[in-house]
Hints:
heterodimer, A: mainly alpha, Cytochrome C Oxidase, Chain A, 73% helix, globular, B: mainly alpha, Cytochrome Bc1 Complex, Chain D, domain 2, 2 domains
Amino acid sequence: MSDTGYNYRVVKGFAFSALFWLVIGLVVGLWIAFEMFYPALNLTPWLSFGRLRVVHTNGLGLGFGLAAIFATSYYMLQRLTRIPLPFPRLAQAHLYLFNTTIALAAVSLFAGMNTTKEYAELEWPLDISVVVFWVMFAINVFGILVKRKEQQMYISLWYIIAMTVAIAILYIVNNLEIPVTLFKSYSVYIGANDANVEWWYAHNVVGFIFTVPILAMFYYFLPKSSGLPIYSHRLSIVSFWALNFAYLWTGAHHLMLTPLPEWIQTVAIAFSIFLIAPSWGSVVNGYYTLQGNWEQIRSNYLIKFFIAGITFYGLQTIQGPLQGLRTLNAFFHYTDWVIGHVHMGTMGWVTMVISASFYYMIPRITNTELYSIKLANTHFWLILVGQFTWTITMWVSGIQQAAMWKATNPDGSLMYNFLDSIASLYPYYRLRFAAGVVYFIGILVFVWNLVMTVRQQPHQTEA
Amino acid sequence: MGISSKPVVFAVLAAVVIMLGTTVTVFIPLLTPSTQPVSRYIKPYTAVEQEGRDIYMREGCNNCHTQTVRPLRTEVLRYGEYSKPEEFAYDRPFLWGSRRIGPDLNRVGGKYPDSWHYTHLESPQGMFEKSNMPPYGWLAKNRLDTQYSLKKTSILGYGYSERDVQQQIEQYRSTVTDKNYASKESRDKVTPPELRNDLTEMDALIAYLQKLGRDVKKMEAAK
């Protein structure tokens, strides 16, 4: 505990919970990647691909992603308001409830208790638990903001507010369901409406978990790590409101050419294209912050993570809207291309920024120095190479599969049956698994580096 | 900007901004009946088909199989007529999926005999060497649990009485256990002897798969 009175215990608790769920989620990811070309690995019902895929997505999205967001939010909230958490015991209870919920989520998904709505697969008792811990978090967020000593709220705090509000709305609306038993429920929405609500949720839950709070970290930890102020405050204001406004209109680009009314799909395309502007507002703001100080990308190991991360965010936010265009979507949708797209965001942007934020934050909350900068550099290159090989492999695989689905003979009949397209993808699946292993080793180096950091003797004389 | 020193006002404003797109693209369609039209040709799932659908959900089949055929030439050639909104009038939740690791299933009903499904579910690789689908033979070793069938169909608003539900279950049981059942040989091969006179989870899953895209053909024929 530092003498400023800030509560770092809960920050540390969430940070190491994040690392724990990260490793678990990646092990499951490697397992299902192997199943894709070696189906004999579907050894038992609870190890079958259909059940494991949701353990992977929930473990990393809810487990790793949320825990990292809670850790960094509790840290940034205290630093940016210059007061300790108003309800430290509530925050501690939040940590315990969070980990209990994620553990039960994993067990229940292994057992097949699955509502099938993507990124909202948890059954209703766990939904309630998620809502409860979100409220616990929100009480500390608004409590500390109301009591704060710093008059102006910095950009990162806006993003934390937006996330807190948006996730509450999204999660509750999409998860309205009628219980049959403790372990089974049915959505209150029907057919096309259920699809529309779900993809409004799924698109925005990605936006408000894998974009908004990651931008909060980026806007806080990049200036802190580089010692340079954010290039333009005005640009960040415009980007913030434009992002919050436009994001919510775009869910239906996941439902292109389905029986959902066409106008909803078209509106989603228009707003998706618009979204490039606020997304790139943050990218430009990041790049220009380093204006005249680009040598830091060599001299400061943290800057590499942030700049690679924001670059992947920039690529992601161009690729996403383009995939939403009807003609391109007709080709790419339902193939591995989209899997590549998602993983560039998560393995590139999200994990890079969280990594650097943890490297900056954890030595400061434990009053030590980072165990090894050399290992941090090794970590960087392994996850960069792993991720890039992974995503490029999936893009190529996706293009090939899409082309095979569409190929016709001169007489107009289909050239390939579905099985031909699967059989031709196995080499890509093997390469993807190998890339995943490289990435996973990088993550193990990351975890090891942080574990060794906190095991060091803290400095005695620092404030 | 003044609001950056007023957290509560800021949060309210953020909520309002978030609700704009939400209202137009989600809530208004929800209140518009034409978003999810109904057709007298599309019937709800029977109790057994619904149990099969729940097994489909439990096993996460939706992670690899979509249930929407898009109005694209090659897609219609591959799977059949493109999907119509009326088909989903009883789907809670929807199961359109987002990735085709396996083929689309929206029009799979009636495409193959039950025997094909018993053999294929037992060992996909036995039928197609290069398939990467997990084997589901163990579904035939689980007796179908129907204790909540009535509760389920009444929550879903199918309008079945207790008698209807019992009849549907009994009717399907007698169909698949009949000695003249066309797929008897394949069913017996995957079903353990002690369950051959009962409904198994695999029976229900196949009943569901055979329902997919069946009713809509009548709707399309009537147009």
